[in-house]
Design brief:
There is one protein chain. The chain has 8 helices and 8 strands; from the N terminus they run H-H-H-H-H-H-E-E-E-E-H-H-E-E-E-E. The protein has 322 residues and is an alpha+beta fold. Among the domains are: 117 residues, Nuclear Transport Factor 2, Chain: A, CATH 3.10.450; 92 residues, Nuclear Transport Factor 2, Chain: A. Strand 7 and strand 8 form a beta hairpin.
């Protein structure tokens, strides 16, 4: 039907229908034809792609390890190994007694052969076998002297190791020759070994040493620095004079009125107070530091006794030694 209509139209209009139809078909073709899409540029990483992957792997591994440590650290305890060195302490009184007993045997002798033999036998209780042999001829049978030990005084004990001690001592001897006696003093040191059972032996022979001498040290004399005024100084002086008059015979209950926290002990001595010697007062916050000598007359020995004290006093209603 459509074709007949078109033919009729064509007869009247010629080729116009063909041209219009072709134009319509071209339009439809253009509409149905897909548009060309623009090509999106691509960035190629090349060799950097491997590095990126490696870094990501490391990052993931680090985070995973951190999470693992965080969870496992809850029940984990750090164990610190500690080496405990136990030092065995030996009673130095035993060492002193051992050396003193040895010195009284070693530095004393008689002139008879029996006395010499007995001495050598007793020394075996103190010396190693080697030292016993070394000292065997110390006192000869023809010796013209005899010796008696008056005194042995200990000066120093040094613990060289867990089991050895160096002991310094002096010996006062009375040497008699042809019925003439002379007193001499010598200073020596020996080395003592003490075993696990606290048995001891001398491993070094008595060797000459130096007796300690008087030191030239002079302590700085305390002086008042003016921080305590004259009125307070008089109050403290009066308090101390009253206290030290009562102190030698005061009971614990009586001391409690003047002294806090047992700062001074009960002495119960037959002393008579004489005077304070060179009192020094220095302010220390709310308290006053006191350095003072106290002169007493000892009624038993009839001598003058000067005791030195470093005290701290405070005013709590009345003055008190704290």
């Amino acid at each position: 039907m459509k074709r007949r209509i078109d033919r009729g139209i064509e007869r009247r209009t010629g080729r116009k229908i063909d041209k219009r139809r072709k134009r319509n078909e071209n339009v439809k073709e253009k509409i149905s034809r897909p548009k060309k899409q623009k090509k999106v540029p691509t960035i190629r990483l090349g060799t950097h792609k491997k590095l990126t992957v490696t870094l990501w792997v490391l990052l993931i591994a680090s985070v995973s390890f951190g999470v693992y440590k965080n969870f496992t650290a809850i029940d984990r305890h750090t164990v610190h190994e500690r080496e405990v060195i136990e030092q065995r302490i030996v009673d130095t009184n035993r060492v002193e007694s051992f050396v003193e007993s040895f010195a009284k045997e070693y530095f004393a002798w008689g002139q008879s052969q029996d006395a010499i033999d007995a001495r050598n036998e007793r020394l075996r209780n103190y010396l190693t076998e080697e030292l016993s042999q070394l000292n065997f001829d110390m006192v000869r049978a023809d010796i013209p002297t005899s010796s008696h030990v008056w005194n042995v005084q200990m000066w120093n004990i040094t613990q060289d190791s867990d089991m050895t001690f160096t002991v310094t001592f002096s010996v006062e001897q009375q040497i008699t020759e042809n019925e003439i006696s002379t007193t001499i003093t010598g200073v020596y040191h020996v080395v003592v070994h003490a075993d696990e059972n606290e048995n001891m032996v001398i491993i070094k022979n008595p060797t000459m040493d130096r007796k300690p001498q008087k030191s030239s040290y002079q302590p700085k004399q305390a002086e008042s620095d003016g921080t305590v005024d004259a009125i307070t100084s008089e109050e403290i002086t009066s308090f101390l004079e009253t206290f030290f008059k009562l102190y030698p015979t005061a009971t614990e209950k009586e001391l409690a009125y003047y002294v806090s926290d047992n700062a001074l002990p009960v002495i119960q001595k037959n002393y008579v107070f004489a005077e304070l010697v060179n009192p020094v007062y220095v302010m220390n916050g709310e308290n006053v530091n006191v350095i003072v000598g106290v002169k007493y007359l000892d009624q038993d020995t009839k001598t003058v006794q000067i005791s030195q004290y470093e005290l701290r006093v405070v005013k709590e209603g009345n003055w008190k030694i704290i």
